[in-house]
Design goal:
The complex is a heterodimer of chains A (220) and B (233).
Chain A lengths: L2 H8 L14 H6 L6 H27 L4 H11 L3 H21 L3 H9 L6 H11 L4 H24 L3 H28 L10 H11 L9
Chain B lengths: L26 E6 L6 H12 L5 E7 L4 H8 L8 E5 L4 H7 L2 H14 L4 E6 L15 E7 L6 H4 L2 H5 L2 E5 L4 H4 L3 H12 L4 E3 L9 H16 L8
The chains are: A mainly alpha (220), B alpha/beta (233).
The complex binds guanosine-5'-triphosphate and magnesium ion.
The site of guanosine-5'-triphosphate (GTP) has 17 residues of chain B, from helix 1.
Chain lengths: 220, 233
Amino acid sequence: MSRSALLVLADGRFPAGGHAHSGGAEAAVKAGRLTDAAGLEAFCRGRLHTVGLTAAGLAAGAAAGLDPHELDAVADAQNPSPALRAASRRLGRQLMRAARAAWPDPGLDALAAAFPRGAHQPVVLGTAARAAGLGPEDTAHCVAYETVGGPATAVVRLLGLDPYQATAVLARLAPEMDEVAARAATAARQGVDALPAASAPLLDITAEQHAAWPVRLFAS
Amino acid sequence: MHLDHDHSHHGAVSADAHRPDGTRRALRIGLGGPVGSGKTATVAALCRQLRDTLSLAVVTNDIYTREDAEFLLREAVLPPERIRAVETGACPHTAIRDDISANLEAVEELEDAVGPLDLILVESGGDNLTATFSRGLVDAQVFVIDVAGGDDIPRKGGPGVTTADLLVVNKTDLAPHVGSDLDRMARDAAAQRGDLPVAFTSLRSAAGVGPVADWVRARLAEWTAVPAPAPAG
Ligand SMILES: Nc1nc2c(ncn2[C@@H]2O[C@H](COP(=O)(O)OP(=O)(O)OP(=O)(O)O)[C@@H](O)[C@H]2O)c(=O)[nH]1
Ligand SMILES: [Mg+2]
């Protein structure tokens, strides 16, 4: 277990394509549901306890050594939005590129070969974390953080929100991120059938709408 | 140029000069520069000049998603399947320099879909004077400024002006109207760039892109002069 490897993987500068995605924040801003720091906090909290928990479980499962093919099929089944499924596979492919450069590993090579169009991002993340020597718990923390970190950065750009306020939102959510990560890791140790499957239907609906916008700043 | 000798895995992880099957990949040239300087116009003119003799494709990096790609599609400079738009999350310089993963996906997908390709042009959305391409993404880069943006831009320098493999000063037709001194721009550019080349263009005429097209052909000749490896078995 390497705490420093976790920092490298969780760093917003890790070049895995996340910067072009808002995690649904762009649609929420456009709809007028997210207008300030309080709105960002509520949005992030919702994301964290639903899709964040679910993704953290998948990634922790991959880090724990569960079968990535099975996890990938679970991710497909958990994700009703075609736009989000496509974004997840695309991000998985982009993450794979960065992960193989950072932590060359036969497990990553095998996953890349099995999914040339990309496995789901949390599955790749868990496999990358395993290659980096991280366990399920650390991996789940990484997912929990990126679940809220991505939208926070996007909202700073979209609303011109004070970056100190955005960072304070993330800091306030830290205990809940720990909680979500612990739940996900515990489930992952019990096997695929125990993985959480919380969803956020509004994120699915707005992701489909967002994908059809002719003009947008973020890819999702 | 950039070589990674391990071709046993699916997909490249860096600016590998070869495709997974061992054949040489396309030369990638980036075009960056301030908003409205004529990057898309240069890409369009290059496509018209080169498309009859070379197999070409274009990747655009827009701020608002698809503007540049749609212009190129409307102008029909290439068949639509040869044009890809990368979405940049409001930040084209991140997508061309700090996190190039989406652009690498786009160039590789183009080669898979319509290849083999000789040349891929990668346009960055109009950004600022510090926006340059990663060497992990492109083999050479062109920085496009224009005379109407102020004739002191070459003097101001910045990474784009000083380090680009080719500096293009576009819209020379406007120089008399905006009071820009082309000789001064040439002198300042030379002072900033040493031996690196500068091309003055006006894209108002069809032949205006000529010096840039010649430079691209020279880069391509260098690229293909390195013998291609035998295809992997
Ligand atoms: N007069 C004149 N106008 C030009 C020339 N080249 C381009 N333009 C015009 O300048 C405007 C901007 O050109 P684009 O090619 O869209 O510029 P760009 O650098 O791609 O702009 P962004 O992608 O928005 O940063 C368009 O209206 C072009 O027709 C030129 O040589 N002379
Ligand atoms: Mg343009």
